[in-house]
Amino acid sequence: MTEIQEDIGTEPSIGRHSVGRRRFLGYLIGGTTVVAAAELGLLSGQAAAKIPSAPQVFDAYDLSDLLTHAAQPTSSLITVTINEDGTASFALPRAEVGQGITTAAAMIIAEELDLPLKKIDVTLAPARPELIWNQITGGSNTIHAMYTPIRVAAAVAKKTLLEAAAAQLGGVVDELETRDGVITDALGNSLTYGELTAQAASPDTKAVEVGLKDEATFTLLGKPTNRIDALDAVTGKKVYTTDLDVKGALPTMVCRAPTLNGKPTKVLNAAEVKAMPGVTHVAMVPTGVAVRARTFGQCIDGVRALRVDWEDGPVVGESDQDILSGVKAAELPMPALPNTPLAKTIAYDFTFWFRSNSPMDTNSAIADVRSDRAEIWSGLKNPIVTQQQIALELGLTPDKVKVNVMQAGGSFGRRLFFDGAMEAAQVSKAMGVPVKLMWHRSDDARVGRAHPLATSRVRAMHAAGEVLAFQQSHTAVEMDLRHGFGEIVTALAADLPAGLGNLGYAQTIFALTTGIPYDFGVLLQTLNETDTRFNTGAMRNVYSPDVRTANELVVDQLAKAMRKDPLAFRLEFCRNERVRGVLKKAREVAQWGKPMPAGTAQGIAVHTEYKGASACVVEIDCRPETVGRRVRDAVTGPRVMKATMVTDVGQVINPRGVEAQMQGAINDGIAMTLTSSLHLVDGHFEEASWDNYFYTRQWNTPPEIEVVIMDSAEPPGGVGEAGVAPTAAAVACAYARATGKVPTEFPINHRDPLAFEPKPRTPPIPPSPTDGLRWTY
Length: 777
Known about the structure:
Helix content: 25-40%
Protein name: Isoquinoline 1-oxidoreductase beta subunit
Shape: globular
Oligomer: single chain
Enzyme class: oxidoreductase
Keywords: Membrane, Oxidoreductase, Transmembrane, Transmembrane helix
CATH superfamily of the largest domain: Aldehyde oxidase/xanthine dehydrogenase, molybdopterin binding domain
CATH topology of the largest domain: Aldehyde Oxidoreductase, domain 4
Domain Aldehyde oxidase/xanthine dehydrogenase a/b hammerhead: 235-314
Structural class: alpha+beta
Pfam family, one: MoCoBD_2
């Protein structure tokens, strides 16, 4: 269920309601219909501070600020078009990967234009290099950065339509009324937007000053609304990359090395495989050997039949413990805590194992590479960098590479990378024909992007009821940010030589995304990354799930040492009013402190990021009968029986979308803490598909989930990742309280014997199943 709650916190100094009273500059773009845009380069009231050269204070400047500032210079290139049929079109320069931003954008336009939602057509924009940093989807930033630009563009369109109507009807703009795409004068005469768009259009681009609609008159924003693509999604009409029928693009798959990042040196039976039924081409590329055929089933047969000589990958012979030892060896000495008499120190060392993004929609791309041009189709969060890098690989200029952005079924950080699109381009060039490339599930689990293995050491000192110091040293396998996201950070970091890795990116992003919302005296958080041999990337919520889990477990131990209730302790030391607000509401809604049977417990954790704050309370069952319950071919273990998420995300565009995001985040957080990880054995990850990567399944999903959305006077913040970290941390804290043992490795079951029989590495793709009904429930 979802509730809208009144704000508990104090009135912010710059509230969202001030936006409606300000004037904005926009543009009416020259053309035959109304095309309107915003100009925000000098009008960012809520982000007026100068960008610091080396941001270190999370409270003053965070990743949302950075991404929003980067997008502002090209805000005038984001346009809303009024069509002659009375509809409005908007090419969204972000990627829809299931998070619902096409619906949110449509709602914003519909509200500002007074158009029915069904008359808003939102598509995904292809790569537009002129947008520079305004076409990156990440950091839960889309609505925070685009809310005002979209509104201003829609307001400019509406104003020009009103002026055209006043001229045609013989009245004044102030006497006209707009409703459902119709403009009516005081006498009842009316004109539709479609009838006016040609007249309202301007042959030349001109500046237009507008005010925005009074939020008190909103009829759509803030109301629970079904997604505009929901029906297509559930009826199979929604179009993903592999659904496209691009002329000549046949199914293609890649045979990969038996060790991580191994490379092919020789194909021993290419002619034999090419002669197999349906197979048209076999070609070697840097990542493996590609097989193109009439069907994907024939591709699988071809890949399985290949005999290839391989060069071993860089981690051949190594396993989890070897990588962990290397990370521990890279741990930097922690600064000495203050020499305070009678003070006591709490110290914990935590380990977070490799994890997979594991989106539902497998990595896929279509490529048609010619000698003088190329065209790509794929679900991409950073299409501009994709275009640039593919052009470089093909020896073309970027303007000769067209990149079409497709909707994708999930990302969780995975689609910031364009390795599927790059590989498709390489294969198409090698074969000389268009290809429809699809990664097998085993490909993404074994050689896809993994959330880096990390350790986190936390030291806290307390005395006389006060926390004197709180230090955290996070050490990890390098998180690859060279997908274009990191380049925004600083020109200095972007200029680092390749051999130095991306440490400048990582340290800055760490500083912009992690913080401690408590008054704990001397605060220090540091990051050191090592080992560049893995394919890594930011999983949903980047560093925060690991960082907050380590932090909140130690916060619980501080509360215990001071003999205070965990939630009351957090309220006492909290230095963020929005965090305080969600904590108080969580205490009420989740009935914090209620009696719980032995072996069960509540856990509480908070997180502030993306211009918002969230508190999660979970109830976990660690009793033997629950931990040992048997489900066929399943990992069970402790179960979260109830999860309560209280979130303040600023102004809410679509409560139903927020609820969906929080439900998904809750299940992500549970998986990270209890069940899901990758196991590296002899240079290769053992997991090879969903059936042996143990994300939160139905039998581990909480039977009861409650999402409470706080009413807030703040501008819209980020939603997509906001609930992951507090859930992961709350589950860990609940587990510690239920068992009496503080967990120090995550997920907690990583060292248990494998719950599956590993699939063979040679051939790299398992055979297509012929007994699917056997695996149904």
